[in-house]
Amino acid sequence: MDSPSNSSIPCGFLLQGFFEFPQLRPLLFLVLLAVHLATLSGNLLILVAVVSVPSRPPMLLFLCQLSAIELCYTLVVVPRSLADLSMPGHGRGSPISFVGCAVQMQMFVALGGAECFLLAAMAYDRYVAICHPLRYASIVTPGLCARLALACCLGGLAVSVGLTVAVFHLPFCGSRLLVHFFCDITALLHLACTRSYVDELPLLGACLVLLLLPSMLILTSYGAIASALRRLHGGGGRRKAASTCASHLAVTFLHYGCATFMYVRPKSSYSPRLDRTLALVYTNVTPLLYPLIYSLRNREITSAIHRVLGLRGSGSV
Q1: Alpha carbon of 130 to those of 62, 208, 223, 243, 276: distances in Å?
Q2: Which residues of 245-276 are buried (b: 16+ CB within 10 A; e: fewer)?
Q3: What region, left, alpha or beta, does residue 89 occupy, with left being phi > 0 and alpha being psi -120 to 50 degrees?
Q4: Structural domain includes residue 306
Q5: How far apart are CA 156 and CA 188, in angstroms?
Q6: Residue in 284, 265, 230 with CA at minimum distance from that of residue 70
Q7: Are 156 and 116 in contact (CB under 8 A)?
Q8: What is the Cα–Cα distance from 26 to 87, expressed in whole angstroms?
Q9: Which one, of 62, 77, 63, 67, lies nearest residue 109 by Cα?
Q10: Is residue 184 in a domain?
Q11: Exposure string (b/e) for 95-106, b if CB count within 10 Å is 16 or more?
Q12: DSSP secondary-structure letter at 175?
């Protein structure tokens, strides 16, 4: 039998969000709005800057796709959260339909998965650039970049559809209250009636494909890069090669670190309010850091941004 709270939302869930903190909600709304606008502006600026470059090297094409993914990634979660924070109150939470929750989770996983695969593709690009510089132009062609970009998106989409179908086939009984501000996988698994470890197998399988497989490719690429750098005699060459990898490594550690901590752990260790706080960081702060990292570390991006903004001295950056 459904509980009374379930009868009022027979085909959906309640997103608790931050309704239990009415005094903090106005401040949280303003902070999230400012961060969201800064994230949108930063990623849009990178997209426009890359498009404005007459001849775009492959790495800029990958950065363009990364910014597009981050742009969509934040749009899946943040606008709904801001709308809920701006409401005077919804009792225990904000209602979301069963289908709406499934679509939000599927899009969130698809974009996060596409980014996992894209970071692996970018690591391969760095490997070819450093280990095979003379053959770089013939190996990493625009056609290969397009195929890798499509494969990243299709891979993330395929895993997300399978995971969403598996999660939403679980029985949800009793209270439908999600102690979260969006339909996250761990929150939905925690709400499922069953307590069997079998329920976690789809999530573990998705983590295996989206986290373990790309991370092994990234580690292999950087292992070969490290071996090549040790063979370099000049310190300047090592510093230049390391500088080209620094921004990619920073983004990789942020993305994989957050994803691993959030999803690669047993269901019994799930803490709803702690996970909600951590999710607030990785859905708002990390998408803001990515364009900052690349705009500060990548010379082509910096020069292109200066041209778009009409600043002088872009060629010396």
Answers
A1: 17, 28, 12, 11, 40
A2: bebbbebbebbbebbeebbeeeeeeeebeebb
A3: left
A4: no
A5: 20
A6: 284
A7: yes
A8: 10
A9: 77
A10: yes
A11: bbebeebbebbb
A12: -
Q: How many domains are contained in the chain?
A: 1
**192 vs 230: CA distance, rounded Å:** 52
Contacts of 207 (CB under 8 A, 6+ apart): 259, 260, 263, 264
Show the tokens assigned to 226. Answer: 């490290």
How far is residue 199's CA from residue 270's CA, in Å, rounded to a whole number? 14
Tens of each residue's pLDDT in the chain, 317 residues: 344 444 444 468 889 888 888 888 889 999 999 999 999 998 898 888 888 777 777 888 888 888 899 999 899 999 999 998 888 765 677 889 999 999 999 999 999 999 999 999 999 999 998 888 889 989 998 889 989 999 999 999 999 999 999 888 888 877 788 889 999 988 888 888 876 666 667 777 888 888 889 999 999 999 998 888 887 766 666 777 777 788 888 888 888 888 888 887 766 677 888 888 888 888 888 888 887 887 666 677 777 777 777 754 444 33
Both tokens assigned to 9: 């939302």
Q: Are 204 and 238 in contact (CB under 8 A)?
A: no
Minimal CA–CA distance to 126: which of 65, 216, 57, 212? 57
Q: Is residue 99 part of a domain?
A: yes
Whether residue 84 is contained in a domain is answered as yes
User: Nearest-CA neighbor of 280 among 38, 74, 72?
Assistant: 74
CB 217 within 8 A of CB 120: yes
Spatial distance between the Cα atoms of 67 and 46, rounded to a whole number of angstroms: 7
CATH number at residue 58: 1.20.1070.10
Alpha-carbon span 306 to 46, nearest angstrom: 11
For 142, counting Cβ atoms within 10 Å of its Cβ (0-12 exposed, 13-18 middle, 19+ buried), the class is exposed
